[in-house]
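Hi! If you just cloned this repository, the fastest way to understand the data is to look at a raw example. We've pasted two of them here, unedited. The first protein comes first, obviously.
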Amino acid sequence: MTISVTLNQFLTLYTWFVATILLFFLILIARYYQRFAGERTYFRWFIVPIVLFTGAAVRYASIDRIAGDSVGDILIAVSGLFVGVGAVYLYRVMTVGRE
């Protein structure tokens, strides 16, 4: 039994891996700040985009397309929204009131 992976599938999974590592570092930063500054950062919510990115990557890799799939596009959009809102919130918690 041979497994053939197209370039599109490889790049989709590679991109997912890089995005997951970056989100993991964001989780570590938020957890560190919450632990030592005592301000709530809701770092556990950053797991949601990882799960959604995983679903989108699996969906795109399984159909061997780069875009145009409504389920994958919605998963990417919602995960991007979670990352954006979470990053802005974390930025505000870490910087507002600091001089």
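Ok, and the second one:
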Amino acid sequence: MQRILEGMDEYLFRMYDGLLKELKQTECYRNDSDEADRLEERYPEIRQILEGADIRKERVLSVEVQTAMKEFMEHRTNMLDDLQVKYYLRGFHDCILLMVKCGLLNQNE
């Protein structure tokens, strides 16, 4: 069983990597990624919060930084949504292929 799981880890990693490569070719994903990166560079507070830097210190954020943080999270959420849709479609595609190979679906029908 462990060997099967190890093989699945490799398969899932390769699938994840392939899906990310495909997504990076799309304009929407690239725009979201570029915009999130730009916000992260302009507002270092975003990275500090995400990494948990100085987590024990109280922090007051300006309205500008709060707005940037909200926008950053929207872009990252869009990117994750795109990836989840890709995963779903890949699973659907793989399921149909498996059913065809098993003879449960006929390609000519």
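That's it. A detail worth noticing about the second one: Residues 81 and 87 are 10 Å apart (CA to CA).
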